[in-house]
Design brief:
14 helices; mRNA processing; PRP38
């Protein structure tokens, strides 16, 4: 099987580490949906039975007790809840695609077991349980949905010839043994109106070869039953002649002739002493749990009896006290009636006086309210007038401030223009002065040059005259 596992495509399998975590089960496929059909999963999660009643169950033993009392078949849908007549193709009643219905309690409890994350010991306790075959069927179905395909034949090997019977169809009519159910789990992909997870082709070939090579031991039982039926045919015919009423067959779920022991010699030959030890441990643990439950029930019954006795004594005392209180209350009532008869007139007069006083006080209160309302209205009017005057004053002050700002701005602009004109005049005066100075300098320069020329001419004349 290890060689086959190496050839398979990779799947989401969480393998436990050997040794310390040997009690932890691996999960194959999707760890959130348990590889269930989406239609079935949505109906399970939305069903009130799963959301309300199963939500309160927190332990493994509570879920096992719920299976014992509530499960009557292993079909995914309840009888008559899915109408698939007239549908063809993928919307037919084979794959559970088109229409939903009322999901069965078996599949709700199966998913509840998945949420508890069962260990190897707990799963062994399910498939070896002796109280109900439906507990074992849900355990085997849990293995089919969550365990790797390479491990299925190892889980089912010791139970393929199990002869315990159960009715797997909703409403009855499909009785089969545990071994036949497991063979259908291994060889067929469909289970009523849903599908199991697919087994890879090489693994399926190996499983088919092992099932074909293994002879079915149920055939011997069938031959014995046929011989017994032939031998008893005369008796049955005589009984039918006497009374035409048919006999009622015992239900497969609670059959009194069902044998709890499942051929320990065959299991020892296949699994060895380790498997026998595990079976013995599981059975001892189940016996201890039953004894503890019986003790708890006995204690609860005793406590209930003591409580009932104490309650009865308390009730008697309460009754006596009530009788005494009733007698005293009757005397008091009679006295009160006499007093009321004597003082009835006085009370009526007092009531009239009080009524007149109340009317006068109510009138005064109404007048006070009216006067208060008028004064409040006047105050509101005065406040409104004051607010209006203040608003007007604010508006006038704002307009004045705006005018002042406008005037000040105009004055500033005029001052700026005057300053600009003065600066322009000053610049013009400076330019004229600079022109005058430049002209005077030029004149002085010309005069100097002319004087120098004159002096030169005079010197030349002098020199000529001297010569």
């Amino acid at each position: 099987m290890a060689n086959v596992g190496n050839q398979l495509p990779t799947q989401a399998v969480s393998k436990p580490a050997p040794g310390k975590h040997g009690n932890v089960l691996p999960l194959w496929g999707n760890e959130k949906t348990m590889n269930l059909n989406p239609m079935i999963l949505t109906n399970v999660l939305s069903s009130p039975y799963f959301k309300v009643q199963l939500y309160e169950l927190k332990t493994y033993h509570e879920v096992v007790d719920e299976i014992y009392f509530k499960v009557t078949h292993v079909e995914p849908w309840e009888k008559g809840s899915r109408k698939t007549a007239g549908q063809t193709g993928m919307c037919g009643g084979v794959r559970g695609v088109g229409t939903g219905g009322i999901v069965s309690t078996a599949f709700c409890l199966l998913y509840k077991l998945f949420t508890l994350k069962l260990t190897r010991k707990q799963l062994m306790g399910l498939i070896t349980h002796t109280d109900s075959p439906y507990i074992r069927a849900l355990g085997f179905m849990y293995i089919r949905y969550t365990q790797p395909p390479t491990d299925l034949i190892e889980w089912y090997d010791g139970f393929l010839d199990d002869e315990e019977e159960l009715d797997v169809k909703a409403g009855g009519g499909c009785v089969m043994t545990i071994g036949e159910m497991l063979r259908s789990f291994l060889t067929k992909l469909e289970w009523f109106s849903t599908l199991f997870p697919r087994i890879p082709v090489p693994v399926q070939k190996i499983i088919d070869q092992q099932i074909k090579a293994r002879p079915r031991k149920v055939a011997q039982k069938e031959t014995q039953e046929e011989e017994a039926t032939f031998a008893e045919s005369g008796r049955q015919e005589a009984g039918r002649r006497r009374s035409r009423t048919p006999r009622r067959t015992p239900s497969p779920r609670r059959s009194p002739k069902r044998s709890r022991s499942r051929s320990h010699h065959r299991e020892r030959d296949r699994h060895g002493p380790s498997f026998d030890r595990e079976l013995e441990r599981e059975r001892d643990r189940q016996r201890k749990e039953r004894e503890g439950r019986d003790r708890d029930r006995d204690r609860g019954d005793r406590g209930d009896r003591e409580r009932r006795r104490s309650r009865s004594a308390d009730r008697n005392q309460d009754r006596r006290e009530r009788k005494r209180s009733h007698s005293g209350s009757r005397d008091r009532r009679n006295e009160r009636r006499d007093k009321e008869r004597d003082g009835g007139d006085d009370r009526s007069r007092r009531k009239d006086r009080d009524h007149h006083k109340d009317r006068g006080t109510e009138r005064e209160r109404s007048r006070d309210k009216k006067s208060r309302g008028e004064t409040e209205d006047r105050r509101h009017k005065d406040d409104r007038e004051r607010h209006r005057e203040e608003r007007k004053a604010k508006r006038s002050s704002r307009s004045r401030s705006r005018e002042r700002r406008h005037k000040s701005g105009e004055e500033k602009s005029k001052k700026r223009e005057r300053s600009h004109s003065r600066e322009r005049d000053r610049e013009r005066d400076g330019e004229q002065r600079s022109h005058k100075r430049s002209r005077s300098k030029e004149r002085s320069h010309h005069q100097r040059e002319s004087s120098n020329d004159h002096s030169k001419h005079s010197e030349r004349r002098r020199s000529q005259s001297t010569e």
